[in-house]
Q: What sequence folds into this?
């Protein structure tokens, strides 16, 4: 086989490999969105309070008991996709740390190659070769194979700085994952309380509708006896229709709140399960020492811990940039075979050690050091700002908590007075001493007071959850 035909065959093989690679790249390999749908309800497993042993601590949804708020938080921390994303982020940071640590190991590569070449012969005019001097060398076949090892002996601390920076990044990402847990728990608290408020509002709307039906019946009876005009019956019917509309609105609010809770839990939105919504004990916010709370929060909030690790990481990156001014020492070893025919027979080896010291690079190293110094100062400034923001968050959440606590007592008093007023107005209306306007106004005030009490109760628990979140212990507070 001639060299020309051999070269043509090699070229054809290369074209075949390249064409197959291109077809692989251009093929449709995008995943289907159906792969990322939530699991169907029958495949979801929820924990049961006071259930069996840990290995059997889950059961199918239809057999579930009523879930408490603590159960919901545990489910969300286990199933919310953001938690999985945070765990994968930690795994990425750890893998990066291992990749950086690999610089401490020697590298070993094997290679094999073939090439055929011909080149111009640059020969001195006074070489004194007999006969005509050749103008070119070749064509020559070059076959080679062998192992090559390299090891970085000294790098002025660059590897050590990069490894410490990578470990700091892992710690920072872990704290961000802890922050995400607190955020998930807060979203579950809000969704849970929203559903509780909607359900209690629905029950209140039902009572209001029954009361409106009773008022309509009373007005009709009095009209039939000639005690009140027809207008009183019509106004009572309008009020009844408004009560029915309010009931429909709260029914929608309950369904929407359940969908929101399922989303926070990481469960299919159409899934239904029972909830245990016993009202917790009210805690007086005045029992909290704010100086202690702020101090503990500044030591517990994962955002601040993450910021401290980022500052530590930036310090190590600065050290790595400064190490670029020092020398590097590396050793290399190669052993193999090389020949102009196959199989190769002649040995080809080398061993050596070298040192490099950069002299001038257009001020690149100097600018890199300046960049890392400014980045370090920026991280410190961001941390100082975050301390102020978290301190403000704690104080504001405490104020809202105290406001909602006071609103409960006032709302309870308003409901009591409105109920008594409603009772008296109804008695006077039956006796003909009050008008339909008085009756409907009294009912409207009672309904507003009852809805206000429902809102005040669950606003209190939502405000308490925000305060615990601001202090960085919402997950612990839920356990």
A:
């Amino acid at each position: 086989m001639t060299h020309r035909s051999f070269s043509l065959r090699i070229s054809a093989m290369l074209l075949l490999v390249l064409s197959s690679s291109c077809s692989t790249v251009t093929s449709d390999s995008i995943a289907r969105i159906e792969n990322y749908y939530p699991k169907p309800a029958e495949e979801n497993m929820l924990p049961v309070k006071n259930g069996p042993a840990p290995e059997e601590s889950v059961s199918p949804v239809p057999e579930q008991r009523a879930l408490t708020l603590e159960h919901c938080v545990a489910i969300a921390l286990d199933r919310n996709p953001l938690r999985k994303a945070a765990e994968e982020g930690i795994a990425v940071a750890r893998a990066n740390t291992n990749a950086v640590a690999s610089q401490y190991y020697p590298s070993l590569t094997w290679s094999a190659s073939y090439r055929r070449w011909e080149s111009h012969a640059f020969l001195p005019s006074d070489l004194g070769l007999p006969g005509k001097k050749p103008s070119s060398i070749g064509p020559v076949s070059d076959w080679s194979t062998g192992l090559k090892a390299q090891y970085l002996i000294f790098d002025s601390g660059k590897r050590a700085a990069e490894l410490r920076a990578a470990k700091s990044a892992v710690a920072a990402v872990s704290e961000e994952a802890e922050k995400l847990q607190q955020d998930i728990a807060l979203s579950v608290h809000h969704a849970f309380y929203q559903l509780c408020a909607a359900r209690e509002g629905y029950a209140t709307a039902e009572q209001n509708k029954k009361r409106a039906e009773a008022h309509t019946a009373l007005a009709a009876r009095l009209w039939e006896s000639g005690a009140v005009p027809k207008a009183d019956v019509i106004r009572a019917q309008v009020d009844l229709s408004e009560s029915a509309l309010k009931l429909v609105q709260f029914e929608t609010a309950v369904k929407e709140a359940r969908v929101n809770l399922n989303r926070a839990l990481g469960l299919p939105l159409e899934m239904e399960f029972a909830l245990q919504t016993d009202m917790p004990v009210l805690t007086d916010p005045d029992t909290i020492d704010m100086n202690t709370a702020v101090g503990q929060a500044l030591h517990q909030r994962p955002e601040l811990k993450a910021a401290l690790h980022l500052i530590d990481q930036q310090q190590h990156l600065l050290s790595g940039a400064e190490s670029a001014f020092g020398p590097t020492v590396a050793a290399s070893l190669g052993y193999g075979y090389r020949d102009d025919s196959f199989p190769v027979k002649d040995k080809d080896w080398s061993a050596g050690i070298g040192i490099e010291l950069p002299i001038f690079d257009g001020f690149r190293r100097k600018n890199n050091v300046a960049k890392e110094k400014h980045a370090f100062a920026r991280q410190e400034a961001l941390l100082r700002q975050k301390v102020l923001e978290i301190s403000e968050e704690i104080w504001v959440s405490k104020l809202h908590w105290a406001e909602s606590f006071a609103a409960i007592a006032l709302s309870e008093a308003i409901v009591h007075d409105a109920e008594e007023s409603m009772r008296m107005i109804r008695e006077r209306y039956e006796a003909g001493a009050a008008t339909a306007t008085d009756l409907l106004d009294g009912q409207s005030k009672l309904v507003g007071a009852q809805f206000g009490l429902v809102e005040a109760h669950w606003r209190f628990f939502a405000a308490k959850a925000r305060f615990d979140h601001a202090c960085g212990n919402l997950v612990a507070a839920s356990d």
User: Anything to note?
Assistant: Confidence is low (pLDDT under 50) at residues 1-8, 48-63. The first strand starts at residue 45 and ends at 47. The chain has one domain: 50-105+156-325+362-478.
